[in-house]
């Protein structure tokens, strides 16, 4: 008599085998459901954090000529650490891109806190250097420029350049030295194409290249404010929509 025949002829043994197999299926299903539930809860928390970020954005930028950095700092400071800790705690069923989105937004929110702290005390050149230094110290390779572009889009400055209706004098030798810090593809793109380039470019030398410091300072201030508004009002809304879709697909 074969093993299968022996088992099937014994109802007690057959019952035990069926119970074991059924138990395995049930446990696997329960485990899967728990993992899905943990992922849904993670997405729910993410949506709550993004909602708080949106609220801070609207209060700091709507109906004002320039962002209210003090209001931003007050609301973002307690949120930034929560966001990075939350990104790092993503369970296995959460998509890698969702985790990267939260980590990148946390880094951006941290930068806004730094801007809000320093904007009243520094000129725009020192402010940009401070932002760059802080980002360089905190960057751990968690995301690359493609991730940044996917969230924020390649922020262009063409609109600011096109509004310039006069010739701006430049020190060409210093400009060439500055450009030597970039790969050919970055020069062609008109901006850094890697996070490492952005974090290590000698931004403190910019005011030595363009002789009209007032013009450069005004452009940097305008571009910073435009980027803050773009990221806060548009990007967060897009990420919120994607998080909603990811939650529903779990």
Description:
The protein is mainly α. It is 76% helix and 0% strand. It has twelve helices and no strands. It has helices at 3-8, 11-61, 69-88, 96-118, 124-138, 145-152, 158-162, 172-179, 184-189, 195-200, 206-209, 213-249. α2 runs antiparallel to α12 and α4 packs antiparallel against α5 (124-138). It has one domain.
Topology, please?
Elements: H1 3-8, H2 11-61, H3 69-88, H4 96-118, H5 124-138, H6 145-152, H7 158-162, H8 172-179, H9 184-189, H10 195-200, H11 206-209, H12 213-249
Helix pairs in contact: 2-3, 2-12, 3-4, 4-5, 4-12
Keywords:
single chain, 250 residues, mainly alpha, 76% helix, elongated, transmembrane helix
Distance between the termini: 48 Å
> What's the alpha carbon Rg, rounded to whole Å?
26 Å
Helical amount: over 70%
Number of helices: 12
Quick one: overall form?
elongated
Taking all residues together, what is the mean pLDDT? 76
How big a fraction of the residues is strand?
under 5%
Count of individual beta strands: 0
Low-confidence runs of at least 5 consecutive residues: none
SSE class: mainly alpha
Tally of structural domains:
1
Most strands sheet: none
SSE ordering: HHHHHHHHHHHH
């Amino acid at each position: 008599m074969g093993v299968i025949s022996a088992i099937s002829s014994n109802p007690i043994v057959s019952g035990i085998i069926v119970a074991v197999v059924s138990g395995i299926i049930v446990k696997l299903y329960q485990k899967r459901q728990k993992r899905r539930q943990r992922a849904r809860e993670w997405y729910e928390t993410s949506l709550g954090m993004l909602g708080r970020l949106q609220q801070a954005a609207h209060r700091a930028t709507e109906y004002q000529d320039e962002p209210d950095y003090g209001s931003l700092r007050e609301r973002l400071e307690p949120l930034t650490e929560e966001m990075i800790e939350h990104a790092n705690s993503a369970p296995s069923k959460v998509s890698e891109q969702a985790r990267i989105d939260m980590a990148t937004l946390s880094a951006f929110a941290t930068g806004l806190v730094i801007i809000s702290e320093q904007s009243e005390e520094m000129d725009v050149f020192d402010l940009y250097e401070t932002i760059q230094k802080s980002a360089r110290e905190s960057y751990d390779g968690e995301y690359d420029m493609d991730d940044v572009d996917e969230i924020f889009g390649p922020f262009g400055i063409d609109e600011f350049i096109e509004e310039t209706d006069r010739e701006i004098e430049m020190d060409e030798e210093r400009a060439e030295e500055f450009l030597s810090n970039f790969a050919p593809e970055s020069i062609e793109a008109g901006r850094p194409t890697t996070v490492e380039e952005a974090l290590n470019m000698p931004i403190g030398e910019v005011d030595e290249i363009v002789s009209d410091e007032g013009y450069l300072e005004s452009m940097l201030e305008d571009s910073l404010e435009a980027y803050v508004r773009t990221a806060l009002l548009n990007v967060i809304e897009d990420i919120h929509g994607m998080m909603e879709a990811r939650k529903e697909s779990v």
